[in-house]
């Protein structure tokens, strides 16, 4: 991909592509049935997106992902965070 492409995304979203790539790499071998792992990912996405997540919302997201109702990816968590 073109470096300018990533710069344009960063400008529009305020999210650094290095953070997104780092998060994606950390998800590759993560155990998404482990509540602590899922909480860590949610907190990381919240931090990257600059969207605070309440304890209640975090619990709801964790329950949904650990139970297998939702797949764990940046897009899914981002959508859940933005619903609050």
Automatic annotation (TrEMBL):
InterPro entries: SpoVIF (IPR025942). This is Stage VI sporulation protein F. It comes from Metabacillus herbersteinensis. The lineage of its organism: Bacteria, Bacillati, Bacillota, Bacilli, Bacillales.
